[in-house]
Design a protein that fits this description.
Organism: Ephemerocybe angulata
InterPro entries: BTB/POZ_dom, SKP1/BTB/POZ_sf
Radius of gyration: 29 Å
Strand order of the largest sheet: 1-3-2-5-4
Shape: elongated
Number of domains: 3
Distance between the termini: 72 Å
Domain BTB: 37-103
Helix content: 40-55%
Pfam families: BTB
Protein name: BTB domain-containing protein
Structural class: alpha/beta
């Protein structure tokens, strides 16, 4: 029996064509669209019209990308006469990268959002834009330095280079691990420990990785065990003067548990917190300050080890 030929239904074929047209991806033109641009970057349906020579000047990776033929089926794509180059990052990351490259005034603001700093570091590292990567890392280092002298000038109450936001400390720690910026980690971890209750019993716990959480708990325990480094002056074995007064000071400082931040605070800030040591004689006050400083410096030197990190001299950023 001969096969019957299918008769095309014009209405059905038209409907299929409409469905195929609807299935095509929607293209969005970003706000970064230079009229004199000569190349278009596209990611996830978002396009950016920029300058090929400008990107090649800043990035060896972009220079290589532009010299390679596009994947099959994409090489002939053009928009406004410009070749379309596919990139495989989120539209937000590409936008933040281009903003940072094109708008230097934006980067020179006192505080910029963490997402911008994150993009500068991650995308700068990926596309070999080292000045952008290093600038982002420097913003983190200014808040979480690797020297005690610089650290004592910082505070979580005063952010000088990053716009504060919920969970910022742990976002910074995660980024430092991801992009291998170990020099900021000791100070960042220490700052995180100053509010352990918020971490363990707040909403942030779900956003913190197991590895970071373990480092925080372990570091907290180790610092507590080494409490005597900084506060051995409260009970010195070689001083028999003002013993009763020292005991009163110790009890007022303890108030149930040692406060982590006091391990690295300055003598001046400690005295401001407790209103001075008028109970002690001048000799004991001078010796107490001297031993406090010695203990504080010892704690700082050991700080990386509390969190399972190499020593200060062995850490190098972007080594991988």
């Amino acid at each position: 029996m001969p096969k019957r030929h299918r008769v095309a239904n014009p209405e059905v074929e038209e409907e299929r064509g409409d469905l195929q047209m609807d299935a095509s991806p929607t293209i969005t033109r970003s706000d970064i669209w230079f009229r004199d641009g000569n190349i278009v970057l596209q990611t996830e349906g978002t396009q950016f019209k920029v300058h090929q020579g400008f990107l090649e000047k800043h990035s060896s990776v972009f220079a290589d990308m532009f010299s390679f033929p596009q994947p099959e089926g994409e090489g002939e794509s053009t928009v406004e006469g410009c070749h379309v180059v596919q990139v495989y990052d989120t539209p937000e990351d590409i936008e933040l990268l281009l903003l940072a490259l094109y708008d230097q005034l934006y980067r020179k603001q006192g505080c910029i959002p963490f997402k911008t700093i994150s993009a500068m570091i991650r995308m700068g590292k990926k596309y070999d834009i080292r000045h952008l990567r290093d600038e982002g890392a420097q913003r983190l280092a200014s808040q979480f330095p690797s020297t005690l002298e610089a650290f004592e000038k910082t505070s979580l109450e005063t952010w000088t280079s990053i716009v504060p936001e919920v969970g910022l400390l742990f976002k910074i720690i995660a980024l430092a691990h991801q992009c291998h910026i170990p020099t900021i980690l000791p100070a960042a971890y220490f700052r995180a420990l100053t509010n352990m209750d918020a971490l363990l019993f707040g909403d942030l716990l779900e956003t913190v990785s197991d590895g970071v959480l373990r480092s925080c708990i372990s570091g907290n325990d180790k610092i507590m065990k080494d409490w005597e480094h900084t506060f051995q002056w409260l009970d010195p074995p070689d001083l028999y003067c003002c013993t009763g007064e020292r005991r009163e000071v110790s009890e007022s400082m303890w108030d149930g548990q040692p406060r982590i931040h006091r391990s690295l605070c300055t003598w001046a800030s400690l005295m401001k917190e407790f209103g001075g040591l008028e109970w002690l004689c001048d000799r004991c006050i001078a010796l107490s300050e001297e031993r406090f400083e010695t203990g504080r410096k010892a704690t700082w030197e050991k700080l990386p080890s509390y969190f399972g990190l190499p020593g200060w001299k062995d850490m190098k950023d972007f080594a991988l």
